Amino acid sequence: MLSKIDLLTGSGEVSENEDNDGMGTAIGHPEEKCQAEDVQPKRDPPPPPKRESISAVAADLIAKAKLMDDGYVAVDGLSNEQIEEYFRESCDEKGLVGGQKAREFFQRTGLPTAVLSDIWKSVKPPHQQTGIRGLNRHQFSLFLRLVAFVQKGYDMENEELLMAALDPGVWAEVGAGPLEAPELQSPRKVDVGERSSLGIEHVTSNMKPLVGRELKAAGSYTSLPPLAYEVRYPPLKSDESAKLNALIGVDGFLFAYPSFGNGMLIWGSAEGKIAKLEAVEEPSKSLLRFAATKPHQAVACPREDSDAATCVEIENITYKSKKISCCYMDHDRSVMWVADREGWVSGYSVKDIDAKALAREHLIHQWRAFRVGYVSAMTVAIDGALWTGSSRGVMRVWPHAAGPPTIVSMFKPFSSDNETKARELRRSAFDRAHGSKIIALHSAADGYIIWSATAKDILLWDVGSGMCYGMIGHSNGSSPLKRANFFSETSGTPVIEKDKGMEVDPLNGAVLWRPTREDYGYCHSQQESWAQLSERSVVELTERITDGAGKAVKLFGKLGGKLSGTSSISKHTLEKDSMEAAPAQVLRSDIFSMIAPFNNTIWVAYLKGNIEIYSAAGKLQDSIMLGVDIACMACIGREIWVGTLLGDIVRVGIDEMTVRGRFRAHRCSLKSITQVGIRAYTLAADGSISGWSVEQGPRIHESCWKEFKALGAPCFSRASLGVLAVTWNCGESRPSPSSPFFRWISENSSDKSLIVISLQEVEMGGTSVAIAVAKETLSAKSQERGNANAQFWVNTTSASLGRHWYHVSLRQLSGMIVMVFARTDISKDLGAVHTSAVACGILGVGGNKGAVAVQLTLFRHHFAFICSHFAAHQHAVDVRNANYYTVLKDLNFKTVQSIFEEDDDETDYVDENMPSLQEESAIEDDVFSTQSGGAKDSTPSPPNNSENEFLRYVDGVFWMGDFNYRIDGNYEQVCELIAARELHPLLLCDQLKREHTSGRVFKGFEEPEIAFPPTYKFDKGATGELAYDSSEKRRIPAWCDRIMYRGNVPLTSNKPSPLPDSLIDSERKIEIIPTEYSCWMDVVDSDHKPVYGAFKVLLTKTDAVRKRDTVADILSKHIPQRDSIPRFSIAPHTLRLHPFHMPDQMVHIQNKGKNVIFFTIHPVRPEDALVVEVRPARGLIEPSQSKEIFLKANASDRDASMRNIMIRVTVFPQDSVGSSKEIYAKTGEFHALLLGQ
Hints:
This protein is of the alpha+beta class.
């Protein structure tokens, strides 16, 4: 089977290796290749010339190495002895590099997992990836060469250079110099004495920066995290709360959307203490008014939790209250643009938002931008025109957005008498702007170039004409793009060589070859006709009608492609973009975010962890490899804050383009980051919002934490809760309500706040297992309701507990059930309930063995309750251990994906890179593959630190069930010792005690002292305490049913505490103390006895309001005060320009203050922005420095008379972005006199 890279390079054969290392043969079929070429669209380039694939090169080099008896392919900078040392360090007992040891070794390179996975596939032939698991010595040395190749800054996407790097001889001929030895970090050490406020270990290591042409290290965690201002915690009732997607700062207010009512949540005074707001419904207006009030008058949003900062929900902010799809804040013109899922755009004037009002009269623009798809990205150009990108890849420009108010209640967008004429931008007459969802639109600081991006490509556009400059990528040209054929209707999109960019004026940075103002009229009329044609097209109308059916076809196409192993043909495939006609590959995939800082650069982030930094004209200036999965990105002051999928913030300096610090901000992935003055706010996927000081540094953090330790004690109090945990293998029995089982539960509930019941073998048989597999696959949510058997246990238990208790949650998987009940008096403090299940029974997917679990928060502490049923039989210890590790590895509550993900109902195309079943099997040997989870052995190896990501972030865990660990001995001796009440010798022979003590299972967990006889195996119905198995099998009695627990405070004082003695840790401190551990011997419905444990849980309750106020006071005291009034001068105030005799002039803006200032510039009249070009449109100025502003007359024959063009300059401190403009911003003006021709 040929790999993807073989197909792309046109390779038909792979050299055969006769050695038994697995280098086999892969033969292509020329006739099949010809048939494939016949069906290609006419615009596709001819197939590349046949050349060797990377796998073939690797196989050939390995064969040469064996013939020469060198043992390894040469690695620059390393001797064979050093390579051998590395190999022994990472190989297993079979002499192959694979599994956990390989992952740990290669992670020391500092490269992202996805890059390591690509290297793995490059050095190992596809047919061998499902055979021998791991790398032999020769493949290992090739792996090291490619590690050095990437570390030096070369791109894995460049296949020719990559193949040259595999062969030392060919690489020497290239003349690129030696690759040098691969750089490895020292083995990572975890300092458990250093934790953040979330209780997460900070990784400390001897991390050596991997500095190359494009590669820089991500950096380690800061020694002390910043003090967080917690605005919103994860909602306790996620189904009844706002599922927020993004944040935006507006004049000192923090906006978050969409709210539960498809509007916005607003917090006032976001730079200091969140203002107490009051919502007042005015009958004459459909929006809410809010005003700062006294604390006792505050009215919080009723759907928000009581411990969240007071906010107001504004509903009806979109047309017909549809869900918000995106939002853009035009700070220069004080207009907030809001788009919804129906394609409508609304513009609100927020000039007087500091007057504490947002009402219907602030709506100044509203129209429908797209009938098909929705607005997925927006930006405003220097001329005030609104640029919109849709989920279908369409781009439109709305010039009237800079004019007087325009509200269109009906959809008639392109009639001749309508003011809302739009221009639709295309790459050519037949190609829409993009072929898929536009994820970002940004205006560079240059002011006259717009960047648009999808997950696969980036295009650059001219602001004045709306014409496409080209697409960022690689071409075969040897010089920068000089002139594109802007008016061709048939030519493909020009490729802007990323290493060269477009040719620009060295003085002012303007693109040299672009449409002139004389061309604007023709361009605009053409774009208006495209918009009309698009809207009135029969194809568009048909697409709208069949949209629902199309989604079904796409769904079945995905399923069919996965089941049949064939690639599906998608809409994106049929609509061949002109980008595919580029001479070479355009861009690496997975563009995730794009931003435009003040220094006239564009930062493009990829999901795999690398960031590319471009000039406004498309030239690649630098690249940073962070080594983390990127979730979002924002410009905060003079830094780029990168949010990761792990919940970290990585701070990257804009000027030096290096990592300045990293800290853990949230427990889960970040979704959005914004700045409101001196504070930055982050939104996590679980709905939590936290504020952070924009000013970062060890001294600031240390002083803040020191004062918080002195003043924060009144914010916390200790509480004690009783927990009853019960586990029972009920053997398919259904006890009557009067059964001792329910009576014991009722009697033991008097001093308890939580009751957790874990049941196994509620039902059995192949039918139950098959139904459970189907439910888990099609609708796992239904497993939270349970079937009739589960409902019996819930209803009967609820009846026995009485009216002071309520059922919190349930999760079922075949015969396993876990149920949680709570007292009604703690209901307001309990929430964020999620469930999960792991099957590891029949064929590895059966629910007869595995685990079910419930996770919840109580007083904002995270608890997990796990019910497990492990493999049976006396000698199956290794299988039981394997079950434990499977559960530990796969248990995942997926709160990010299933609860808070955005329901994007506008999927544009089927992912052509989605692997088929054959491809999935081909990569299962890849130890870095996220699809395979690493190498699969018969017995799973322990995860790092013996815990998965979920357990690391949980404060308290109760793990109970029928673990099936037995007593090593014979039946008669064990029964005799039980009869004599001599349990100590039996405990010495207990398999679980042995495995636990050795650290092979349940590492970090405790079990109460066992003082009761074994609970398995009894004769059903027998009442005697020694009525163990009397059948001919005479199964040895055992403690199969157990309860393990774990808090985050050790029980015994002789063990070192993982938490330092500080307030940051006492807030999270959970101590679990067992008070009783026994069984109910009078329950005879099953061959197992129920085991129960009574626990006292000591935890900390936080006064959220008091803590917020305390943190706000500390931050305001220790953060350096800004220069609230920027001081600057403009010279000259008046200048003259002539289109021919004096087309270029210059203005100087000088910063006379002591702090850095930001500035924005735009003509007062929007139409003048294209008559006189002003560059840059925004930027920053250091103290006592000046900035040159270039003006260029761009007049045409229509501008015959003299014009006085007023240009406004707005200046504000660097830490006042998102603050109130009237307080911190200062404006100035100068005049450009454009002389007549």
